[in-house]
Amino acid sequence: MEIDTLPKIHNQLIALQNALDVSGVGFWQLDGNDRIECDAHSKTLLGLRATDTLEDLTEFLMQIEESQHENFLDALDTARNSNQPLELSLHLEKTTNGRSSGFKLSARPCRLPGEPTIHMCGLLQPLPESSVEVEKRSESVLAEVRSANAELANFASIASHDMREPLRMITSYLRLLQERSPEALDDRARRYIKYACDGADRMRSLIEDLLSYARLDKSGKDFEPLALDDILAHAIDNLGANIRDTRAEVTVAIDHAPIVIGDSVRLTRLFQNLIANAIKFNRPEKPPRVRVTFKDGEQADAPGKWIISIEDQGIGIHPDHHEMLFNLFRRLNTRDEFDGSGIGLAVCKKIAEQHRGLIWFESNYGQGSTFYVALDKADAQSLA
């Protein structure tokens, strides 16, 4: 071998090792005297630490299930004698996180320069998880997420409840001072008290909205078939005063009312929030106009669902705000323009997701918006 080729071979070996590192595949080799060499990745796949030693085939066998020892040794002898590649899957004797893990072993006989015996050189790589193992892993992660969400919701509920009393005391004493000692207050002091009370009232509203949001996960009511026109009628009735005050026109174009699966209280709130937003974010020069329609999901790439749309002719949504629209407590307009805590659409998104549904929107800035909700269909005959 020419000396000039040595650096090139060295670089190729480094490149090969880097490729193995990136892929998580390990290299191993076994000589004619059953002495074994493994790199760090192979040791990891064998359940060992990178600093652990693994000197011979016996120590290798101790890492895999005893029931596979004979098959592995027979396959190894056959590969050596026939000069054919070896490939098989092996499972570890130890368990990790309560489940058996394993690896795929592949090798082929080869003669190394200066070595009189045949070596087996090859790779170890992780076994793909079975569908059962994936399902178990998913269930475990999902259970952890549910537990964390429950703890967070419980914390939000307790914190929200405990924070309301100090706020009540602040506003009560400030207003008491204003009522009982008016002569001690000048215009500036009265203005400051008003600012403080208004801020406390906004904080109390935020806390109540947070508490309401946290309680969405605590509803234990079973889902049932519901007539969508009844849900929308309840939502519009709840908004009666708002509709009269703003002279809004809300039309519902739903014939042969579709039946959906869900919780009537939460779905009423979802549509109440969407219709209230359509009324609120209106252009000032004319009364709000809101139109509610529905479409069979079979016509819109959503089989098995009804799609309900709430269309307005309001101010629309600026393109810069589209990505953050459903985020919790994200106000997209100033408080002087529109009141609210910025939680309404986050509540809508959460309710839709709880019903295995979808919510999205389309908007032309300055011309209006349309919000869509997709909910699971139910058989009309299932409606009691």
TrEMBL record:
CDD domains reported for this sequence: HisKA (cd00082)
Top-level taxonomic group: Bacteria
The EC number(s) this enzyme carries: 2.7.13.3
Catalytic activity line of the entry: ATP + protein L-histidine = ADP + protein N-phospho-L-histidine
The keyword ATP-binding is annotated on this UniProt entry: yes
UniProt entry tagged with the keyword Kinase: yes
Record key words, sorted: ATP-binding, Kinase, Nucleotide-binding, Phosphoprotein, Transferase
Segments forming domain Histidine kinase: 158-379
SMART domains: HATPase_c (SM00387), HisKA (SM00388)
GO molecular function, one term: ATP binding
PANTHER family registered for this protein in UniProt: PAC DOMAIN-CONTAINING PROTEIN, PHYTOCHROME-LIKE PROTEIN CPH1
Name of the molecule in the record: histidine kinase
Native source species: Coraliomargarita algicola
